[in-house]
């Protein structure tokens, strides 16, 4: 089957970092610092200053100290949500661009991690597994009576991510909207609700839960509704800022996976090295898969 026709969710084999995808970025960060780079963490960019056809500097706020600092650079790569970027540019944005950016929509995400002694479901396949654990990495939940969208079994991604191999770490995934009924639940209520759902569909016995955690991620999925059909207005405006490069997923408001997000960054750097002024090659990354927005990845 050609690459294009193969659904990436159905591939049989892939490389996976021993300690999960974050390990790759921890390694990248180490290398950047070893090579003399500085990484400023836990800060939000709040203001971009524009002069003529480019960005002249930015301000960021430290989330712990709430102190604001300024920094300047030759080039600026943005992975912050386009909506926030346009707000950060502020008064220099034409009204039409601001209106389109304000109307961009997102889907949000809540994940609940559950540590269990064991699952209720058992491995009924011929695939060998430790402790009779079902061999799936993720399970898409089809039952209409629950809100749960997908289940991850972290032991099967990499056994090194689970400290006690006799236990099971699950990730329950909920796709929602900031401010909706799910989003507004307290953490403890949400965790109880999630445990009950998993028991209801027969995957666990709730008495086997030994630990839990919850993470809420706003703006996880850039949506292709709202003002998305007019997105070119924003794109044309930011394209004109020569030293600003919109890259990644929310950075481009585009359903880029990790490989495509990295590719947009590589294309941007290659353009700078080559002195290429057009950014169309960056926007062309992942064009053929643009309409996969209904799938969770
Ligand atoms: C549940 C889930 C499962 C996924 N599974 C896969 C998968 O299996 N394979 C795959 O390839 N992809 C997967 N993805 C997609 C993948 O995570 C994204 O494609 C990738 O992370 C996009 O990279 P990025 O750098 O654009 O954005 P991010 O990784 O989101 O990084 C953006 C960064 O910008 C920072 N930021 C935002 N605003 C500001 C600001 N104002 N100032 C400073 N910093 C800011 C954020 O804090 C963040 O660190 C998954 C995504 C989700 C949500």
Question: How much of the polypeptide forms β-strand, as a percent range?
Answer: 25-35%
Give the beta-strand count: 10
Tell me which ligands are bound. Answer: flavin-adenine dinucleotide
Helix tally equals: 9
The number of distinct structural domains comes to 2
Q: Give the helix proportion (percent range).
A: 25-40%
Describe the sheet with the most strands: 5 strands, antiparallel
Q: What is the CATH architecture assignment of the largest domain?
A: 3-Layer(bba) Sandwich
Order of helices and strands: HEEEEHHEEEHEHHEHEHH
Question: Can you describe what's shown?
Answer:
The chain is an alpha+beta fold and 297 residues long. The chain has 2 domains: 31-103 and 227-289, FAD/NAD(P)-binding domain (3-Layer(bba) Sandwich); 106-221, Alpha-Beta Complex (Polyamine Oxidase, Chain A, domain 2). Helix content is 28%, strand content 25%. The strands form 3 sheets. Strands 6-7-8-5-9 form a 5-stranded antiparallel sheet. The protein has a 3-stranded antiparallel sheet with strand order 1-2-3. A hairpin with a 5-residue loop joins strand 2 (54-62) and strand 3. Helix 2 runs antiparallel to helix 3 (95-102). It is elongated and about 65 Å long. It binds flavin-adenine dinucleotide. Flavin-adenine dinucleotide binds next to strand 1 and helix 8.
Keywords:
single chain, about 300 residues, alpha+beta, FAD/NAD(P)-binding domain, Polyamine Oxidase, Chain A, domain 2, 2 domains, 5-stranded antiparallel sheet, 3-stranded antiparallel sheet, 10 strands, about 30% helix, elongated, binds flavin-adenine dinucleotide
